[in-house]
Amino acid sequence: MKAFTYEKPRTAAEAAASAASHPGAKFVAGGTNLLDLMKLEIEAPPHLIDVNGLEFDKIEKLPSGGLRIGALVRNTDLAAHETIRRDYGVLTRALVAGATGQLRNMATTAGNLLQRTRCPYFYDSYQACNKREPGSGCGARDGYNRQHAIIGASESCIATHPSDMAVAMRLLDAEVETIRPDGSTRTIPIADFHRLPGDAPQTDTILAAGELITAVVLPPPLGGVHLYRKVRDRASFAFALISVAAVIQKDGSGRVALGGVAHRPWRVEAAEALLPKGAKAVVEVLLAGARPTPENEFKVKLVERTLRSVLAEAKQAQS
């Protein structure tokens, strides 16, 4: 790990101002991903801004009927929150499907959204990786790519986004609230928050340098049956081969989002209109234009079968 300086500001404004005065600085909270990357020297921020002292650890009901989730709410607390379990069950299910209990005790809402890919070529500094070192190439494209993207990828990068929580947030149409180094704030629809790789895969989100997430806002509850199905190579502590998040209403309408198939949580609203026609019809639109590799073409059929199972479970729950 390379040397760095450290501070722990008392307010969001102080944190934002510090980011402005320390180019390349990183915010740290749970550190469950960043510290691993620093140990491997994949990330080498010259300055760390510890935001754990900021008052972003609350879940508040909004007059609109939605919820504001502070950026520092731990994954365990979010999953167990009474309102989340009752009204946003897909989020609880996605959270408990991720990582281990120990990691969920440390991981935060904002940090989860900012997780970097688990592509093995990204973590191996002896391999080519445009995400780690722009212009070096993509070892995964002609290498081991069973777990990689089948849609939304580019010639530069076929990595997937690893978060389970972000898939549920995308399904729910969450919004991300931030403060920028100049003190101004903005609200970002989560549909726009994560980037596709294009020719700049080193940039995962649309956050500006030094921009700090302060909260995530959920709209009013959708009702319906909430399900999250994660398919992985072992029963626990493994990232998704694919995952399906769904909210299904009694009339068969609903929403669907996927994890493990793209550089960001994958949702195509036009596909959801086909839910009453079944999984095959939905997946034909949801994954239209997919370009799997020979090693991961199984994911296309796996998505369809998993969605079919999810729809059957929803129907049974409503009968």
Q: What is the share of helical residues?
A: 25-40%
Distance between the termini: 56 Å
Q: What does the overall shape look like?
A: globular
Strand ordering within the main sheet? 4-5-8-6-7
The whole-number mean of residue pLDDT values reads 97
The run of helices and strands is EHEHEEEHHHHHHHEEHEEEEHHH
Q: How big is the Rg?
A: 19 Å
Measured by DSSP, the beta-strand proportion falls in 15-25%
Q: Low-confidence runs (pLDDT<50, min 5 residues)?
A: none
Protein name: Xanthine dehydrogenase family protein subunit M
Pfam families: FAD_binding_5
Keywords: FAD, Flavoprotein
InterPro entries: CO_DH_flav_C, CO_DH_flav_C_dom_sf, Diverse_Substr_Oxidored, FAD-bd_PCMH, FAD-bd_PCMH-like_sf, FAD-bd_PCMH_sub1, FAD-bd_PCMH_sub2, Mopterin_DH_FAD-bd
Outline the structure in words.
With 319 residues, the protein is of the alpha+beta class. It is 30% helix and 17% strand. The chain is built from 13 helices and eleven strands. It has helices at residues 12-21, 34-39, 75-80, 82-87, 89-96, 101-106, 109-113, 120-123, 165-171, 190-193, 269-272, 279-286, 298-318; strands at residues 5-7, 26-28, 47-50, 59-61, 67-70, 175-179, 185-189, 212-218, 225-231, 242-248, 254-259. The strands form three sheets. Strands 4-5-8-6-7 form a five-stranded antiparallel beta sheet. A hairpin with a 5-residue loop joins β4 (59-61) and β5. α5 runs antiparallel to α9 (165-171) and α12 packs across α13 (298-318). The longest helix is centred in the last third of the chain and has 21 residues, at 298-318. The termini are far apart. The model has no long low-confidence stretch (mean pLDDT 97).
